[in-house]
Design a protein that fits this description.
Blueprint lengths: L2 H15 L1 E3 H8 L3 H13 L4 E3 L2 E3 L9 H4 L4 H11 L8 E4 L19 E4 L2 H10 L3 E4 L3 E3 L3 E3 L1 H7 L4 E6 L3 E3 L3 E4 L2 H12 L1 E7 L11 E4 L6 E3 L7 H7 L3 E2 L2
Amino acid sequence: MLQADRYAKIYEIIKEKRSVTVPYLTKQLYVSEATIRRDLENMEKQNLIKRTWGGAMIPSLERDYPPFVREQTNIEAKEKIAKIASRFLTNSCSIFMESSSTNIPLIPYIKNLKNIALITSSLRISRIAAENTSASIYLLGGQVYDGAILTGIQAVESVKQYHTDIMFFSCSGISASAGITSIEPKVLAVSQEMMKHTKKKILLCDTSKVGKDALLTLADLTVPDYVIMERTPADTELINALGDRLLTK
């Protein structure tokens, strides 16, 4: 099992159990106690878990899942959303991608396009795009958060240098009452600044987020030019609010 996969599994177990012991994790993952202890130490340094005597626990639930967990959730939905979103990609276009894992399945669709400029706040997105496409990659400055995301004043100021054709972004929740919301204050300002410097804003949002209101307002429902979901949500009020801007096929 790769280290990232092991981290994701450990996080999921601790999230479910709230607290676990090293021997329990050892039996679940079929690795040595020394390996588990090293993993827990590294995960604590990233503020993902809090080590306890003989085990670990989740320090706080008031944050989003770490990137390596988000990438492995709702994969089929994200791939369908990416396929729909790929219709907006053309040769010679410039793209903002904020740090959401929902953007990653879009990268293969860039592979055969020419003269693409991709600006992102995600170290992981920049690496995957650099390794798999011929796009010109521009990485924002800023403080590294969660080991993979660039945040802070410097990142926001970096966004102001660019003006793109399109922006792809995601959220923690969406509803007719609260609009588009996020649980991550450290990435909020970067995404909002990107919205000011692009011609077309496209929200990529799987239906698991419908009806959920996260802590912070990311944008009003009127902001995105399109909202792409893998299927039509059951929330008729939200459907009516989005109208023709909701794309599901």
